[in-house]
């Protein structure tokens, strides 16, 4: 393509996924449906078997070219009529007159859509599984890698990097479940004519529809208008938006942890040639994570027109058609792409455990206030009293620039109940991880099956 406009043509998306939605592949999916329809007619005896075989043979882009279809569409102003005419004219004998028999355009379009959905979601599932595997490996490796937990952008209490990764792995696992579950409702086609009555297909209409979908390995839209009901598309696109949101969540965390003042992880950087900034030579930017965040927002933006496309006039109108030409391929291509990109980030992630420990130490012991409070409660102090004591002590430490341990060592109410050894133990981040190790182990075991 000369002077491409859409970035999918030259920047984003895996070729194997983009190919599913390319002009030639789209045409082949449409032809596959026409061929299946002819075979179904032959099976119930409404057209000769030899003619169905001829249609099936010629229902290939080897014979029906995108160029010829485009020439016909320029005359007819109708995309599916162009396909059927192009197929009919390459068929030998009487076979051409049986092409598209009893069908309406969206019997072909929506069934072909389902075939594309099946191919694209299968590839997306593979990428999600790869990401899940990468995250599980990180969780296992960094099971005991201490770091600050942060809430509201502030230091909270210690966690491990392994726990963070294990939580992400579980989220990816749930997204895989959602994608799998929605397939039973999204991967369906129809072959029931202009308003869903099957009138033009004759007395064997339901049988023909059943045979077509069995042939193509799709579910059946049991009660259709002229189109497959768009609540199915709404569900699929909602799952894609949900997946995209998870990817943006992960990418945002990488971006934040790569901040200069935090520096706990970073994207891989090719030191020999990669450039971080056109003007600031020192820059190493989290560009892939930033790309993921930007594209995830594009995927989510398609939710609104998808919902609006589900609202049809009577048995259908054509307002959804033009929008779906953008929505369907873009959503699936971009979701697959950002999952792939996110897996690449995590697979090559530079983790800095030393910086994580330094950030813990620089926090002046404040994240351990809950641990000391809990220890005081164990020794008999009321929970409310212990909380107030540590709140005041933490403020004093923060305002004076002193370590919390130093403040507590000079607080009689604390030293009266805790020995120096007990206080130091309570202030040790490694001693305040609770069930973290067991949680990570359980998740790793569950997701490694």
Features:
two-stranded parallel ribbon, 449 residues, 3 domains, two-stranded antiparallel sheet, 6 strands, mainly alpha, Fumarase C, Chain B, domain 1, Fumarase C, Chain A, domain 2, 62% helix, Ribonucleotide Reductase Protein R1, domain 1
CATH topology of the largest domain: Fumarase C, Chain A, domain 2
CATH class of the largest domain: Mainly Alpha
Tell me the number of strands.
6
- What is the CA-atom radius of gyration, in angstroms? 30 Å
CATH architecture of the largest domain: Up-down Bundle
Largest beta sheet: strand ordering: 1-2
Q: Helix and strand succession?
A: HHHHHHEEHEHEHEHHHEHHHHHHH
What does this structure look like?
- It is a single chain.
- The chain is mainly alpha-helical and 449 residues long.
- It folds into three domains: 85 residues, Fumarase C, Chain B, domain 1; 254 residues, Fumarase C, Chain A, domain 2 (Up-down Bundle), CATH 1.20.200; 87 residues, Orthogonal Bundle (Ribonucleotide Reductase Protein R1, domain 1), CATH 1.10.40.
- Helices cover 62% and strands 5% of the residues.
- It contains 19 helices and six strands.
- The strands form three sheets. The chain has a two-stranded antiparallel sheet with strand order 1-2. It has a two-stranded parallel ribbon with strand order 3-4. Strands 5-6 form a two-stranded antiparallel sheet.
- Helix 11 runs antiparallel to helix 12.
- The longest helix is centred in the N-terminal third of the chain and has 37 residues.
Structure, briefly:
By secondary structure, the protein is mainly α. It has three domains: about 15-100, Fumarase/aspartase (N-terminal domain) (Fumarase C, Chain B, domain 1); about 105-360, Fumarase/aspartase (Central domain) (Fumarase C, Chain A, domain 2, Up-down Bundle); about 360-445, Orthogonal Bundle (Ribonucleotide Reductase Protein R1, domain 1), CATH 1.10.40.30. It contains 19 helices and six strands.
């Amino acid at each position: 393509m000369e002077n491409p406009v859409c970035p999918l043509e030259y920047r984003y998306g895996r070729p194997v996924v983009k190919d599913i939605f390319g002009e030639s592949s789209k045409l082949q999916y449409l032809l596959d449906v026409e061929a299946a329809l002819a075979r179904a007619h032959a099976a119930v005896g409404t057209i000769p078997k030899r003619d169905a075989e001829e249609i099936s043979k010629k229902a290939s882009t080897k014979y029906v070219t995108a160029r010829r279809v485009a020439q016909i569409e320029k005359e007819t102003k109708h995309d599916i009529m162009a396909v059927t005419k192009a197929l009919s004219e390459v068929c030998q004998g009487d076979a051409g007159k049986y092409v598209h028999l009893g069908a309406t355009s969206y019997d072909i379009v929506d069934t072909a859509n389902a075939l594309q959905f099946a191919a694209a979601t299968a590839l997306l599932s593979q990428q999600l599984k790869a990401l899940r595997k990468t995250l599980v490996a990180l969780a296992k490796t960094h099971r005991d890698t201490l770091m600050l937990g942060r809430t509201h952008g502030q230091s909270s209490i210690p966690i491990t990097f392994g726990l963070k990764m294990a939580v992400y792995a579980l989220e990816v696992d749930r997204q895989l479940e959602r994608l799998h579950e929605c397939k039973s409702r999204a991967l369906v086609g129809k072959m029931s004519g202009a308003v869903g009555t099957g009138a033009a297909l004759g007395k064997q209409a339901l049988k023909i529809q059943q045979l077509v979908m069995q042939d193509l390995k799709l579910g059946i839209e049991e009660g259709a208008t002229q189109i497959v009901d768009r609540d199915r598309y709404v569900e699929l696109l909602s799952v894609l938006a949900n997946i995209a949101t998870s990817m943006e969540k992960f990418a945002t965390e990488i971006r934040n942890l790569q901040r200069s003042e935090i520096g706990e992880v970073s994207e891989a950087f090719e030191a020999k040639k990669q450039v971080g900034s056109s003007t600031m030579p020192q820059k190493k930017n989290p560009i892939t994570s930033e790309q993921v965040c930007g594209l995830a927002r594009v995927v989510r933006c398609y939710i609104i027109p998808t919902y609006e496309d589900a609202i049809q006039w009577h048995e259908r109108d054509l307002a959804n058609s033009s929008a779906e030409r953008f929505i369907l391929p873009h959503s699936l291509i971009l979701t697959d792409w950002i999952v792939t990109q996110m897996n690449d980030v995590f697979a090559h992630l530079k983790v800095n455990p030393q910086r994580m420990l330094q950030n813990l130490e620089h926090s002046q012991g404040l994240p351990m206030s809950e641990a000391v409070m809990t220890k005081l409660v164990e020794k008999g102090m009321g929970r409310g009293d212990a909380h107030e004591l540590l709140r005041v002590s933490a403020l004093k430490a923060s305002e004076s620039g002193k370590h919390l341990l130093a403040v507590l060592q000079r607080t009689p109410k604390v030293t009266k109940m805790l020995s120096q050894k007990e206080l130091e133990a309570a202030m040790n981040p490694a001693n305040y991880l609770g069930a973290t190790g067991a949680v990570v182990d359980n998740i790793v075991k569950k997701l490694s099956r």
